[in-house]
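Hey team,

Sharing the UDP-glucose--tetrahydrobiopterin glucosyltransferase run so nobody has to redo it. Sequence (362 residues) first:
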Amino acid sequence: MSAFKKALKLLFVSTPVGPLGTGLGGGVELSLYNIAKQLIRQGHQLQILAPQGSTWDDLPIAEISGNLQVIAQSQERNTPVNMPENPLLGNMWEYARQVQSEYDLIVNLAYDWLPFYLTPFFQTPIAHFVSMGSLSDALDFIIQQVAKQFPGTIGFYTPSQAATFPELTPPLYHLSSGIDLSLYEFCPQPKEQLVWLGRISPEKALEDAIATAQKTNLPLYILGKMQDEAYWEKIRQDYPNARAEYLGFLPTTEMQKVVRECKALLMTPRWVEAFGNVAIEALACGVPVISYARGGPAEIIRDGQTGFLVEPDSVQGLVDAVLSLDKINRYTCRQQAETEFSLEALGLRFEEWFLKILDTRG
Ligand code: UDP
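Structure output:
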């Protein structure tokens, strides 16, 4: 940190859908980890409130108990706000309320109604990092209210994600993402195999990747959190002959060993993916990304250079892209990750956003 910049005291409040390190929270877990790590490197002081059972020993985590929140993806748009008995989310924000005067800024990473609703009741300003596209009418409404009352406090991964929310008062911040590139090893020569990464859940449409593997007769490795067992069983029954192997949810170092040896990462989101951390993780290994042309991946992948963007929901489009992979230079993929998605750049973007919020508050 440069001498004239103030060290900020930051309180990060994590997602309440699962302990950090379990993968239940999806890509926002890795984002939180990377942002926190980098801001500490930049000289800021940081405390993270996270569910009990969080496993990251190298970050300052205060573990909070209580019942987990249900994930927004499994609910209808018009489902009213749900709160379990002894809610972890409520407990985290009660803790935040008590310690707020020790911090310059609170950073909310929960995709939940309560932290937005509580914002005007806190004396310490709150920055809200929204980790998914619009899924809930109640959440859309409260985000709208906060954007109006506290302009500039809402941050998104990408413009296409932000555009899924109705009429938000500007300025909106697009923070993108970043990774520790030193953890991902470049592999110039892949094996004849494909990979798919992510939570195993219907909005990720894993079945399209399996269909692609079957049609191209290439093996597909699947890595990620098993979120919907029944969905997974159904896919296995629908594609009995696909050469698809599920390897579980692996830590980054182990995961990248599998990813880097693959010809391509397939991304098949049925929804507007807010970003897609797995895309930049693959690029960092020199692995091209083939994705449906919607949401975050469409902003990341350089079509024809670092992967292919295909017509959404077209398995034939994915197959054609796999057959064109020889056109992609794997060095260009790694290079894109280095120039656009470094941890250093990510830390500076967040720092700038936080300083703007504090400036506005005076
Ligand atoms: N991931 C992992 N190990 C695995 C498979 C996936 O750590 O074996 C992580 C991956 O690094 C990424 C997250 O799971 O951060 C998936 O997030 P993504 O942004 O792709 O989608 P989301 O789950 O947020 O919708």
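The chain has a mean pLDDT of 96.

Ping me if you want the raw files.
A.
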